[in-house]
UniProtKB/TrEMBL annotation:
The species this protein was found in: Otus sunia
Family, as annotated: Belongs to the Cob(I)alamin adenosyltransferase family.
Subunit structure comment from the entry: Homotrimer.
Alphabetized InterPro entries for the sequence: CblAdoTrfase-like, CblAdoTrfase-like_sf, PduO-typ
Ranges for domain Cobalamin adenosyltransferase-like: 26-195
Name of the protein in its database record: Corrinoid adenosyltransferase MMAB
Record's function text: Converts cob(I)alamin to adenosylcobalamin (adenosylcob(III)alamin), a coenzyme for methylmalonyl-CoA mutase, therefore participates in the final step of the vitamin B12 conversion. Generates adenosylcobalamin (AdoCbl) and directly delivers the cofactor to MUT in a transfer that is stimulated by ATP-binding to MMAB and gated by MMAA.
GO molecular function term, any single one: corrinoid adenosyltransferase activity
Cross-referenced NCBIfam families: PduO_Nterm
One Gene Ontology term from the biological process aspect of the record: cobalamin metabolic process
Keyword presence, Ribosomal protein: no
Catalytic reaction equation(s): cob(I)alamin-[corrinoid adenosyltransferase] + ATP = apo-[corrinoid adenosyltransferase] + adenosylcob(III)alamin + triphosphate
UniProt cross-references to SUPFAM superfamilies, sorted A to Z: Cobalamin adenosyltransferase-like
Pfam families: Cob_adeno_trans
């Protein structure tokens, strides 16, 4: 949504499609000088922490998309949950793209982020955790393609969280967004283990390398 949201305040270029209908161009070239827009209409450098966090969230959704495709090939039912998570990450992006310092009431109404999805993640985590064998060693990202891709998503999630926390601490993003990402990495961890278990794949564990 942040791409759509950020585009709301400006007119994009228009080209003609093969049937002659007018299709908006994906590029406006307004970002070429290294600045881009927040949903509140501010122009900021692309190196701004807001765009770092937006980019990390985008990478996270992409990683989850890949994990979801691998999982779908194996018939895992949890792909529906992953789809919902990807939708929630769009809302995470919308909240990040709306810094509270320049947000008006109308912006806040459209980009608020509640605690409800955090609680839902907790329910999902608890239900998978109950079914898993207890942890007796450090698990390494492994356990088949679905599982390894979920571990990769978990690591990207933690980076997204690291990017968002300073925004929350500065009062620019909603604390529930950081909570959501924190819980999401736990969800992705138990889901990675669950996928390995369901597929009968071995989870590699840490063994002290011989010197
Ligand atoms: N490199 C980036 N990483 C993360 N978020 C970005 C980046 N560049 C832009 N954004 C955000 O995503 C929105 C959509 O990206 P888009 O590529 O359309 O922006 P732009 O580079 O400013 O414009 P254009 O590509 O048309 O020159 C922007 O309005 C901004 O909020």
């Amino acid at each position: 949504m942040w791409r759509r949201a950020a585009a709301l305040g400006r007119v994009r270029g228009v080209s003609r499609g093969w049937r002659g209908e007018r299709a908006p161009k994906i590029y406006t070239k307004t970002g070429d000088a290294g600045f881009s827009s927040t949903f509140t209409g501010e122009r900021r450098q692309k190196g701004d922490p807001i765009f770092e966090a937006l980019g990390a969230t985008d990478e996270l959704s992409s990683a989850i998309g890949l994990a979801s495709e691998f999982s779908s090939e194996k018939g895992h039912m949890f792909v529906e949950q992953l789809h919902k998570v990807q939708c929630m990450l769009q809302d995470v992006g919308s909240n990040i793209a709306t810094p509270l310092s320049s947000a008006r009431e109308a912006h806040l109404k459209r980009t608020s982020f509640s605690e409800k999805p955090v609680l839902e993640l907790e329910q999902w985590i608890d239900s998978y955790s109950e079914q898993l064998p207890p942890l007796r060693a450090f698990i390494l990202p492994s356990g088949g393609k679905s599982s390894a891709a979920l571990h990769f998503s978990r690591a990207v999630c933690r980076r997204a969280e690291r990017c968002v926390v300073p925004l929350v601490q500065a009062g620019e993003a909603d604390p529930n967004v950081a909570k959501y990402l924190n819980r999401l990495s736990d969800y992705l961890f138990v889901l990675a283990r669950y996928a390995a278990m369901k597929e009968g794949k071995e989870e590699k564990i840490y063994v002290k390398p011989e010197a």
